[in-house]
Amino acid sequence: MAQEQVKPVGQGNRRNGILRVLRASGAPLSIVAIANELGVHPNTVRFHLDSLVADGLVEHVEPTQRGPGRPALMFQAVRQMDRGGTRHYRLLAEILANGLAVQPDPGAAAQAVGRVWGEGLESPGPSATAEETIDHLVGMLDDLGFAPERRSSDGAQQVGLRHCPFLELAEGRPGVVCPVHLGLMRGALETWAAPVTVERLEAFAEPDLCLVHLAPAEAAS
Prior knowledge:
This is Transcriptional regulator. Pfam families: HTH_20. InterPro entries: ArsR-like_HTH, WH-like_DNA-bd_sf, WH_DNA-bd_sf. This protein has two domains: 67 residues, Winged helix-like DNA-binding domain superfamily/Winged helix DNA-binding domain (Arc Repressor Mutant, subunit A), CATH 1.10.10.10; 128 residues, Muramoyl-pentapeptide Carboxypeptidase, domain 2 (2-Layer Sandwich). It has nine helices and seven strands; from the N terminus they run H-E-H-H-E-E-H-H-H-E-E-H-H-E-E-H. The protein is elongated. It has a four-stranded antiparallel beta sheet with strand order 4-5-7-6. The protein has a three-stranded antiparallel beta sheet with strand order 1-3-2. Strand 6 and strand 7 form a beta hairpin. By secondary structure, it is an alpha+beta fold.
């Protein structure tokens, strides 16, 4: 089988050119061989190889043939998917949200997914009081990007959420995304055997606020 032909590339794409040469080769190559293939000076290849090796994309290989003199350094591309490409996590989130939306009970399915997520979150400890648990919940929500703030109304404890890390999805699919958040909090609190639980989540209670209503765990049950 003929070896794939690799066209010369500009300086800006030199790293990619070296990678293409190594991936197209059926055997490890020396610096001189790579330079000849690309039509550049060996020092240029050597410079980029150092960074490619440091990034884990290329590796040194022991030469298979021994002869007089110092053996040439041999290189080959590490066999793995390209980790430098773009990511489309929002597209994945949209796909998953759409999948939940077609379930017989989208809200229940989404809340169940959130519970699984919440069950793996760090506990405040088995002896945490209600106040300590709420503080821990607020800290957890802050770490997740919800910009939470503690509130109260007529003596009832609340947590206001000023930011949604999935805002665009939540605006389009509130019946799916918001129950995921509810399940997250309930799953965490139940796993912690907390003295409080989330009674309900009032999505977009105000234009700039979602409101978490807390209650004693015994009262909610």
